[in-house]
Structure formats: structure tokens, C-alpha cells
């Protein structure tokens, strides 16, 4: 089972949206998928049409030891092949309650051990912070995906996140958290600034950046109100195509390019080169081969 943590301590970057729709896209491929809602706000649970307070058992019970069986907590969703490990506001107390527990960073990994034979993918929606819950997700994961909004403030947050991951690796698990990928979100291909950010991110991070990007789509924020993923709410939308492409790129390792770079001479938009922002910042090794000039794919 590949376990993917969706991580970013900055809110509003499309993390929960990406967790839900990537999991749903895997399911439409015929994969067996478990979506873990590890955010006390329970947005992944709500986004799939569930009332967080309606569950007798949640991921909190699994972490606290009140429930030892993952299968007693998991619920099936309306999307075939997609199961949900829900949460509610009780999870907010985990940061305090688990702080003194020995091996606290291993609790989620142990809880997911029963799922490894039942699912092909596990997608974890992390809270917008770097506390014990996110630490559990990072340690339990084989892959880390960082959704990065095409916005300058979001890039500042990415810088801090990479440094935090480096510290966690050094202190807890030196050989983990290597397979890190960056996903550009809220992309507007007609805007010069957006294209510049993409171009410079690929120059700096190369093969760590997915070829696939997630475009801004008015249908995307509508789907949670319907309690559905974009794959079922608006399957012909641009966003649905983006998430299907992302799932293919994760499983197959490549995506078909859709559009070429606008060029190196751009007179508007970002006023400084991002290489200066990330100067001296730890950047993990990538696994894919960077192809210069690729901006987006669908």
C-alpha cells in the first residue's frame, strides 16, 4: 500500500480538496483507496457528504487506543473503491493527550498496519499545522505531496515546510520522507504571474514538481457542498481532468504535456527570482526526470 500524506501548514492551498479528489481519482482507476481525515476540522469527512458528529468511532479512537481495529472505524463512501477513515472535533485533543505517549509519532502507522493488504493507496489529509498529527502522517507515509498555491506567500510557507521536514528526518527517521513531490494549485494559465511561478518552481525544484497542475475551476469549490468529489460532481470539468491526470502521473510516473513555457523574457508579474528565496534551503532528492519547458498537462 502506498501511503500519501497531503501536507502544508499553510491553509487555503487546496490540500483537503487535493486529498479528496486524488483519492477519488485513484478509485475511478479501479484502485482500492483509503482516505484518512487527520484534520480536526473534518473537512475531508464533510466534503464526502458526512456529518462528523454522526460517527461513534473515528480516527481519534484509533490513535488513542480506544479502538484497535481499523475496520471498525472505516466507512464505505458512495464512490466505489473509496473508503473513509473519518474524524471529528475530538481529534483536536490528540495534540495534548498524545504529547507524553512514548512512540507518539508511530501511532497512525501502527493503526494503518491492518489496511496494508486491503488497499492499494492510502491518502492522508493533514491539518494545516506541523504538530503531532502531521508528524504521524509523515512517519507513516511512503510519499509526501505538498500542494502549493501559485502565490508568493505560499512559497514562503513551502520554504518553512521543507526545513521542518528536514528537522523531522534528522531527529526521528533519517531514511524516511525522501519521496516528496510538489503540486501547483490554483493555476491560471492566462496570467503572467502564474506562468512565471510555474517556470521558476520547475527551475528550482526540477523533477520534484508534478507535470500536472490543478487549474482554478469554479466547479471545484462547489463539489463539497454536494458532498461529492469533483470526479462525480462535475466529471467533465477541467478540475476533474486535472485530478485524473495527477492520479495517472502518480501511478505511471509520467503525464502527457499540454502546454509549453511562455519563454524566458517576461516583463510583468513576479519582481524577484525565486532561487533567492530558497537559497540554502534543504531540497530533497527527486525520483522523476525533469523535462525543461513543460508547464502543464491534463
Written description of the protein model:
With 298 residues, this protein is α/β, with parallel strands linked by helices. The chain has one domain: 3-Layer(aba) Sandwich (Rossmann fold). Helix content is 34%, strand content 14%. The strands form two sheets. The protein has a seven-stranded mixed β-sheet with strand order 3-4-2-5-1-6-7, sandwiched between helices. A two-stranded antiparallel ribbon has the order 8-9. Helix 1 crosses helix 10 (238-252). It starts with a strand and ends with a strand. Residues 257-272 and 287-298 have low confidence and may be disordered.
Find the count of extended strands (DSSP E, 2+ residues). 9
* Relative helix content: 25-40%
| CATH fold-level name | Rossmann fold
Kindly estimate the percentage of residues that lie in beta strands according to DSSP.
Answer: 5-15%
Mean pLDDT: 82
Distance between the termini: 26 Å
Oligomer: single chain
Quickly name the level 1 CATH class.
Answer: Alpha Beta
Low-confidence stretches: 257-272, 287-298
* The CATH superfamily title: P-loop containing nucleotide triphosphate hydrolases
Largest sheet: 7 strands, mixed
Query: What is the radius of gyration computed over CA atoms, rounded to a whole number of angstroms?
Result: 19 Å
Globular, elongated, flat, extended or rod-shaped: what is the shape? globular
**Helical run tally:** 11
How many structural units, i.e. domains?
1
Secondary-structure content class:
alpha/beta
Give, in order, the helices and strands. EHEHHEEHHEHEHEHHHEHE
CATH architecture descriptor: 3-Layer(aba) Sandwich
Spatial order of the strands forming the largest sheet: 3-4-2-5-1-6-7
Amino acid at each position: 500500500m502506498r501511503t500519501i500524506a497531503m501536507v502544508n501548514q499553510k491553509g487555503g492551498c487546496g490540500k483537503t480538496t487535493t486529498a479528496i479528489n486524488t483519492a477519488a481519482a485513484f478509485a475511478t482507476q479501479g484502485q482500492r483507496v483509503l482516505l484518512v481525515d487527520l484534520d480536526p476540522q473534518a473537512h475531508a469527512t464533510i466534503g464526502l457528504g458526512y456529518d462528523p458528529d454522526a460517527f461513534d468511532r473515528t480516527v481519534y479512537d484509533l490513535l488513542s487506543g480506544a479502538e484497535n481495529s481499523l475496520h471498525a472505524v472505516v466507512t464505505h463512501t458512495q464512490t466505489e473503491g473509496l473508503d473513509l477513515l473519518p474524524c471529528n472535533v475530538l481529534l483536536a485533543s490528540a495534540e495534548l493527550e498524545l504529547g507524553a505517549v512514548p512512540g507518539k509519532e508511530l501511532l497512525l502507522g501502527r493503526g494503518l498496519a491492518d489496511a496494508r493488504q486491503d488497499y492499494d493507496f492510502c491518502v492522508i489529509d493533514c491539518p494545516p499545522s506541523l504538530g503531532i498529527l502531521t508528524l504521524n502522517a509523515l512517519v507513516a507515509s511512503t510519499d509526501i505531496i505538498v500542494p502549493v498555491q501559485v502565490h508568493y506567500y505560499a512559497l514562503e510557507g513551502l520554504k518553512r515546510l521543507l526545513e521542518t521536514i528536514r528537522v523531522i528526518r534528522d531527529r526521528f527517521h533519517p531514511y524516511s520522507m525522501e519521496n516528496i513531490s510538489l503540486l501547483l494549485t490554483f493555476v491560471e494559465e492566462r496570467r503572467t504571474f502564474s506562468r512565471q511561478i510555474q517556470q521558476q518552481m520547475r527551475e528550482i525544484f526540477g523533477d520534484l514538481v508534478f507535470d500536472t497542475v490543478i487549474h482554478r475551476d469554479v466547479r471545484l469549490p462547489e463539489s463539497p457542498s454536494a458532498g461529492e468529489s469533483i470526479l462525480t460532481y462535475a466529471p467533465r470539468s477541467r478540475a476533474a481532468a486535472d485530478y485524473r491526470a495527477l492520479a495517472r502521473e502518480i501511478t505511471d510516473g509520467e503525464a502527457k504535456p499540454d502546454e509549453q513555457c511562455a519563454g524566458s523574457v517576461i516583463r510583468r508579474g513576479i519582481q524577484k527570482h525565486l532561487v533567492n528565496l530558497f537559497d540554502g534551503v534543504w531540497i530533497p532528492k527527486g525520483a522523476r526526470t525533469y523535462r525543461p519547458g513543460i508547464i502543464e498537462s491534463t
